[in-house]
Amino acid sequence: MPVARPEPQEPRVIAHVDMDCFYVQVEQRRNPALRGQPTAVVQYNDWKGGGLIAVSYEARKFGVKRSMRGDEAKMVCPSINLVQVPVARDKADLNVYRSAGSELVAILSTKGKCERASIDEVYLDLTDAAKEMLLESPPELLELIFEEATKSNILGLPSDIGNREDSVRAWLCRADADYQDKLLSCGAIIVAQLRVKVLEETEFTCSAGIAHNKMLAKLVSGMHKPAQQTVVPSSAVQDFLVSLPIKKMKQLGGKLGSSLQDDLGVKTVGDLLSFAEEKLQEYYGVNTGTWLWKIARGISGEEVEDRLLPKSHGCGKTFPGPKALRNNASVKSWLDRLCEELSERIQSDLNQNKRIAQTLTLHARASKGNECDSIKKFPSKSCPLRYGTGKIQEDAMKLFESGLHDFLGSQNTKWSITSLSVSASKIFDIPSGTSSILRYIKGPNSTVSPANLDCSLPQDPSLGGINQFSNSSLTVLTCKHASLGNKLYITPNHEEQCEPSSSEKEDRGKNSNLDKQHQVKEEKRMSKKLTDVKGTCSILKFLSQSSPVVNEKRKLDSLTCSHPGPESSSEPNKAEEHKSAQPFDRNKSNPSGSNSASSSTWMFNVEDIDPAVVEELPPEIQREIHGWIRPPKHSSSKTRGSTISSYFQPAKRS
Ligand code: TTP
Ligand code: CA
Ligand code: CA
């Protein structure tokens, strides 16, 4: 369940940047003939022309939607260009999109703390940059305002007064604005500059939201798309939120949002305002109650994390309809391919970024017998991650078998798998000062051998099956640290053999100065470049050279976000139930005890699912994970009316 974070004392300037029809833009850059054309990217599949996963704004004008199949898109827009996602190992290969996302991150991170939130979006904390601008070149003293900034959408600014750009310019330059709004104006100018820089350097357009916190910035970044930005002054927050459907709020897209709707009759954020904080706490617990009370008022203390790299790696594949997998051999064959890709990606993360992943998780969607939609879900399973393709494949298969065992219970029935994915999470940096570790592991002149990173616990022969790993990944994490640490400290002479990229981490003080110098240079270079284009270039103008831009009012649908928060689900309770039932199960259903023991040991805790991993999984699995998130049942012994809403009826509704 979500919890309220302490709010910062000082006002912040936060931006959320999201690429427009991202995969389409990547394909258009690869094949410029597609620019300005109705285009969609299609997931590899030969059924009805494949599933659309990204749709250009030109195609959206014809009514083409992401939910369509290729054949359907052709019907509503005969001229549409359908581009297939690159394929490797018979599945989508997203590497080209991932590295395009990294280009965005590299540019945006020059201006402040930057958090890579998904394949095509980032959060930026621009507070320091905005304060600096306000001190050194406040907008009210500028002769010319960066043109792209004057195209901003400012929430609450009347749109019917004269020339819109003039009124935006006037708003950005108000001498009598309060400090918070002045900072936002600077933020809007900085984001406009960054977006133009992204366009110039990557050829991609993006949209952005600028506000005092992450929640508001994310809520508005998709409000005006493509290639536009939206600013949320504090004075506009209440009007903006009041009519916003509750399900559009981050972390309320799932069961918690449903409970608010069904149990309390809360349809919009405005409806939530009529509940006292104590009432919300009474129903959802102290932390979540306070969180709900605050978000209804646009208050969120959540910080932008300093993270340029993904939090996790995941790869999956769906097997719709007749393609469902129905035996261990076919599951193994697919798992092997997925694990091979995962192994390559964590290996490259290790080589390039000196990061090690700790946890391997398997998710699947299954049905059994003749049920098409089993009520019981296939439990996600995880275990400590051992490097090396063969080991990952072996472990993933064991996780699958363990999950299947739990899924089927005592039933000896047929089953089918419609979706399968593996992910590597809990990634940590190899600590600074340990840069020789890779060289030590590799040995001079050799490439890293993943098998060498196997730090699994000494095996206990008394434990069978996947129990050999451990009861908790924490244990193995400790082991990994210890093991890596030992190797490092007994071989200090390997330090000088470090590759430059590794040794960069050794002297943080020195390097942070270098980084700063580099950053200042970069900023100077950028501001020069931006001065060059001042008054002549705007993103919309740039776009209009190739095609007319639809100023499409974007539906807020895609803003729905229901990933599990730090305390987000009752799944742990499920795990608890499972654990407490374990001795009984073990004795009853499995005399050897090994499998049932493992099943409770490896019950995946939904708290541990990283939202970034979820985003990379097939939509089917994403939906399932979102479905897990449900509010806890109220344990109060109070007698309610026939529905909870009758008990907690908001005043204005009664
Ligand atoms: P989104 O940011 O949701 O969408 P988008 O960038 O295509 O379009 P918009 O301009 O509305 O932001 O997703 C980013 C990319 O992630 C998208 O281009 C393709 C991929 N993706 C999938 O593969 N499957 C999905 O279900 C979704 C939502 C996205
Ligand atoms: Ca996007
Ligand atoms: Ca996105």
From TrEMBL:
Residues 573-588 have a biased composition (Basic and acidic residues). Its EC number is 2.7.7.7. GO terms for biological process: DNA repair; error-prone translesion synthesis; response to UV-B; UV protection. Pfam families: IMS, IMS_C, POLH-Rev1_HhH. It is found in: Nucleus. Transmembrane segments: none annotated. It catalyses: DNA(n) + a 2'-deoxyribonucleoside 5'-triphosphate = DNA(n+1) + diphosphate. InterPro entries: DNA/RNA_pol_sf (IPR043502), DNA_pol_Y-fam_lit_finger_sf (IPR036775), DNA_pol_Y-fam_little_finger (IPR017961), DNA_polymerase_eta (IPR052230), Rev_trsase/Diguanyl_cyclase (IPR043128), UmuC (IPR001126). Its main location: nucleus. Its cofactor is Mn(2+); Mg(2+). Residues 589-600 have a biased composition (Low complexity). It is an enzyme of class 2 (transferase). Keywords: DNA damage, DNA repair, Magnesium, Metal-binding, Nucleotidyltransferase, Nucleus, Transferase. GO terms for molecular function: damaged DNA binding; DNA-directed DNA polymerase activity; metal ion binding. GO terms for cellular component: nucleus; replication fork; site of double-strand break. Residues 493-528, 553-602, 624-654 are annotated as: Disordered. Residues 14-253 form the UmuC domain. Belongs to the DNA polymerase type-Y family. This is DNA polymerase eta. It comes from Leersia perrieri.
